[in-house]
Amino acid sequence: MSTANAYDAVELIRTKRDGHRLEPAAIRWLIDAYTAGAVSDEQMSAMAMAIFFQGLDRDELVEWTQAMIATGERMDFSSLDRPTVDKHSTGGVGDKITLPLAPLVAACGAAVPQLSGRGLGHTGGTLDKLEAIPGWRASLSNAEMLNQLNSIGAVICAAGAGLAPADKKLYALRDVTATVESIPMISASIMSKKIAEGTASLVLDVKTGSGAFMKTREDSRNLATTMVEIGKGAGVNTVALITDMNAPLGRSAGNGVEVAESVEVLAGGGPSDVVELTVALAREMLSCAGIDTDPAEVLASGKAMDTWKAMIRAQGGDPDAALPAPRHTEVITAEADGYLTDLDAMAVGLAAWRLGAGRAKQGDPVQAAAGVSWHVGIGDPVRAGQPLFSLYTDTEDRIERARQALDTAATIGSQPVSARPVVLERIS
Ligand code: URA
Fold first, then answer.
1. Best residue among 176, 205, 213, 214 to mutate for probing ligand 1, ranked by most atoms within 8 Å of CB
2. This model's pTM is above 0.90
3. Distances (CA, A) of 254 to 125, 138, 347, 368
4. What is the CATH number for 374?
5. Which residue segment(s) compose the domain that 211 sits in?
6. Ligand 1 midpoint to CA 212 (Å)
7. Residue at a domain's end among 314, 345, 369
8. Quick one: which atom of ligand 1 is closest to the CA of 90?
9. Which atom of ligand 1 is nearest to the CA of 117?
10. Is the C-beta atom of 171 inside 6 A of ligand 1?
């Protein structure tokens, strides 16, 4: 830390609390001092709450993001002979899109360095899902990552400890202080990691609705615009899609169940909304990377499946091994005839989490076989007594609380409704 004791954390908290701007040097000092442990968690959580209410203006946010990047290393993929492009989702329920998307885009000719996270709260984590595959390993060295990008074109792995360490600390703190849902802090958190990762292009999947951090379209648009501006300002070709997260994606939420569904998509089947979003994001990524290939054709050709298998094997996994089976399965049936008109993503996410798919705090283990499947999609007819949900867990006493979460999750109406669009808006 170059400017130790140059600022007083309490004074900076007061400045932001009262709605004033933080000067650039003060932001750099604060982020450095927090990462080094010289500013305490208590002080940083007060600052996070002050920012939650008062926000950061554009200049403060750019400085904040750059300061977080500067706490760690920057990766360099410039030696690759293919263009690099990544995607990041702001987090949702049943959001397994990274699993089919990364190998698909690699099979089309781009390099996809996908640094992913673990689930926390009601949203799932890509690494937790992939760890359901026997033998699969999330941690790779930078050299292993580069090798895999060279030979296969796609890698999904954990961000190393050296990448934006300020974000690791701050995200964990925000998670336990109710300060996650802040546009400037989500933007800085995501963009610091993506800029440090060194991807040339980035497609953001900004979720909106009950199962997303941003519940309204206006907030989601604001988040998307903010991140696109930060990305472009840092020289990353950035585009965002705003996508629906009122209903969960696909037909399952959890760990192994989402891997199984992703493999169905790679095999040419799978739920239509997952296929639609995977192809839409692939098109955006390929367009950013300057590759003129139709991802729908490549998906149908089976090449994306080949890349998936190579990617899983390269990280120690067996793509043909059976996924872990749950010790207990419980089926919830429909009480009335009608049509499924709504399915609450938040409730489904909560049920999957209660069954053991997610963790209550960082470091807790997750169950590979835990999760929820729903057997009808929005608009489908339903008959009383037919299975609506299947609940999977290794711990029987988790079932009751999961059932409670799903009590009012499904709305059955008397009139059919049409399936809702998944992609709502594009911001570039
Ligand atoms: N994902 C992140 O990486 N950070 C956030 O703050 C929210 C979602």
1. 213
2. yes
3. 9, 17, 13, 8
4. 3.90.1170.30
5. 85-314
6. 11
7. 314
8. 8
9. 3
10. yes
Whether residue 76 is contained in a domain is answered as: no
Evaluate: CB of 190 within 6 angstroms of ligand 1. Answer: yes
Same domain, 299 and 337: no
Decide: helix, strand or coil at residue 111.
strand
Q: How far is the CA of 268 from the centre of ligand 1 (A)?
A: 31
Q: Are residues 302 and 391 in the same domain?
A: no
Asked if residue 404 lies in contact with residue 389, where contact means CB atoms within 8 angstroms, the answer is no
- Please give the distance, rounded to the nearest whole angstrom, from the Cα atom of residue 364 to the centre of ligand 1: 19
**Tens digit of each residue's pLDDT, the chain (428 residues):** 544 558 999 999 999 999 999 999 999 999 999 999 999 999 999 999 999 999 999 999 999 999 999 999 999 999 999 999 999 999 899 999 999 999 999 999 999 999 988 876 677 789 999 999 999 999 999 999 999 999 999 999 998 889 999 999 998 899 889 898 999 999 999 999 999 999 999 999 999 999 998 999 999 999 999 999 999 999 999 999 999 999 999 999 999 999 999 999 999 999 999 999 999 999 999 999 999 999 999 999 999 999 999 999 999 999 999 999 999 999 999 999 999 999 999 999 999 999 999 987 767 889 999 999 999 999 999 999 999 999 999 999 999 999 999 999 999 999 999 888 999 999 99
Q: Point out the residues that are catalytic.
A: 88, 167, 174, 189, 193
Instruction: List the structure tokens of 56.
Output: 């950061």
DSSP string, 227-291: HHHHHHHTT-EEEEEEEE-SS-STTEEESHHHHHHHHHHHTT-S-HHHHHHHHHHHHHHHHHHT-
Burial (CB count <10 Å: 0-12, 13-18, 19+), residue 417: middle
- Helix H, strand E, coil C: the string for 135-178 is CCCCCCCHHHHHHHHHHCCEEEEECCCCCCHHHHHHHHHHHCCC
Count the domains in the chain.
3
Residue 426 lies in a domain: no
- Both 336 and 287 in one domain: the answer is no
CB-CB contact of 347 with 404 (8 Å) = no
